[in-house]
Amino acid sequence: MARIRSSDIAAARDAWASDGHAPATIVRRLAVLSRVFNLARREWGMESLANPVESVSKPRVANARNRRVTQDEIEALCAATGSVELGVFIRLAVETAMRRGELCNLRWEHVDLRACTAHLPHTKNGAARTVPLSTRAISALRGLPRRIDGRVFGLKPDSVSQAFDRACQRAGLSGLHFHDLRHEATSRLADLLQAHELAKVTGHKDMRMVLRYYHPHASDLAKKLG
Fold first, then answer.
1. Which UniProt keyword terms apply here (predicted)?
2. Residue 183 among the catalytic residues
3. What three-state secondary structure class fits 11?
4. Residue range 76-120, pLDDT digits in tens
5. SS3 174
6. Out of 42, 124, 147, 156, which one is annotated catalytic?
7. Could you confirm whether 214 is annotated as catalytic?
8. How many whole angstroms separate alpha carbon 124 and alpha carbon 32?
9. Which one of 14, 18, 36, 51 has the largest count of C-beta atoms within 10 Å of its C-beta?
10. Would the pTM of this model clear 0.85, i.e. be above it?
11. 213 tagged catalytic
12. Active site (annotated) includes residue 119
């Protein structure tokens, strides 16, 4: 590690870019390398070790997606899946803004159909949260057969993405990724909730991410000041 220089890191960065990796992917890889060097310095007894990643410029990440998903597209996808379970999975994603992994890990013991909530004890950012369930989300869940193992879905993250892509092809939809359902759900919820409420539902810790979806009309804000 002591022999690695910033020029080595820069060469790796350029090689990843030449291989066609997205800027966000390269930035994440550099962040992992940076954490390794910092960990070695703090905990592995290598106090004099420099972090060469800190001297390397990062590619600009400008690959935010603004793809909106219509209700007609949702219906077409659910019909194209040929799977009741995946159809409910898709409907839950667009109704709750849950992440793919959060839905895969959802258990019936954490779902309260009477209170219209789903508790997520383990999330991507490490903070548990409870998600409100809309009438359509409740209806979709009620139509799902109960599994013996207590899980709501028997799907794995990778299989969800693959099946979703196949459904898109059958439905004739292009430029659509599963994560776009979370974006769509957040955009819809932003019309109903205030920014701090929206963050509680989606699990965003960075309010800047939440404000991408929150666009209240000035006239509506004026009525609140009223």
1. DNA integration, DNA recombination, DNA-binding
2. no
3. helix
4. 999 999 899 999 999 999 999 999 999 999 999 999 999 999 999
5. coil
6. 124
7. no
8. 17
9. 51
10. no
11. yes
12. no
